[in-house]
Specification:
This protein is of the alpha/beta class and 272 residues long. The chain has 12 helices and 7 strands.
């Protein structure tokens, strides 16, 4: 074999080995960061929950696919400065309350899904077995009476609706579907302590229907938003703790711009 080819092959093998080592070190660091984060922050200790992802097939049939999720997300109060009294107390209060409806509003990346997962995880912890949730963001499915009949007659603990802005508009503005949720909320759902959780990516849906958010039916309407620079830095410092190098890297990744707000997703990405 010619000498240049041998040298080229050696460089190729060395480059591959270096890449493998880099990936391994990255994974070790990620696991280390996750373990440190988990050790510092309180978690809702629930093993798993089950989600029935429900949609309309190409044949026009309502179909559900069951997915098992691990409730391992760590929640920090500083990640939700809009929630007074702390996010864990908020979750417990919602599950203890007689009201069934919760509305989460805010742009993508602000922690709405993480909060929903925590609620379902706390349900699992209280039951001593995986909670069950009916989930849909498919307007075709939500326009059908079948999905509501399935929830009322089923054993699910919660009905989660994402991208729900068309369903949250007032009926006076032409919303023809909200009445189904209102009927469900005041019927078997309220009697059994089951929950209806609406999530929308729009920071301000506008005026919600009074019947949906009236006292006795709606527990809370939470407006989540991106964090200010000070709020983002405080969250980084809480998670990184006494690991100064980790904290410094994360703060450098976030950058220093007092006028720019950071989404929760940006903060977690910087910490990785």
């Amino acid at each position: 074999m010619e000498k240049p080819r041998v040298i080229g092959l050696i460089h190729l093998v060395w480059g591959y080995c270096a890449l493998v080592l880099k990936v391994c070190f990255a994974r070790v660091f990620a696991v280390h960061a996750s373990q440190r984060s988990d050790a510092r922050a309180p978690r809702i200790p629930a093993p798993a929950f089950h989600v029935a992802w429900t949609y309309v097939t190409s044949r026009g049939e309502l179909h559900s696919t069951w997915i098992e999720e691990i409730a391992g997300d760590v929640l920090y109060d500083r990640a939700y400065p809009q929630i007074e009294g702390g996010v864990h107390a908020f979750v417990r209060a919602y599950l203890d309350a007689p009201e069934s409806v919760l509305v989460l509003q805010g742009p993508p990346g602000t922690g709405k899904t993480r909060l929903i997962r925590a609620i379902l995880g706390e349900m699992s912890r209280r039951k001593g077995e995986p909670a069950r949730a009916l989930y849909s963001g498919d307007m075709n499915a939500l326009m059908s009476d079948e999905i509501y009949a399935r929830f009322v007659s089923g054993l699910e603990d919660a009905f989660v609706v994402e991208d729900a802005d068309p369903l949250l508009q007032p009926r006076a503005d032409g919303n023809l579907h909200l009445h189904r949720f209102l009927a469900v909320a005041d019927g078997v759902v309220r009697a059994r302590g089951r929950k209806l959780i609406f999530s929308t990516n729009l920071p301000n849906v506008g005026q919600l229907d009074d019947a949906l958010v009236r006292p006795g039916r709606c527990f809370a309407r939470v407006q989540v938003s991106a964090l200010s620079e000070g709020e983002a830095r405080a969250l980084v410092e809480e998670i990184a703790g006494d690991d100064g190098e980790w904290r410094q890297h994360a703060l450098l990744a976030l950058g220093a711009d007092e006028g720019r707000r950071r989404s929760l997703a940006e903060v977690y990405r910087a910490l990785r």
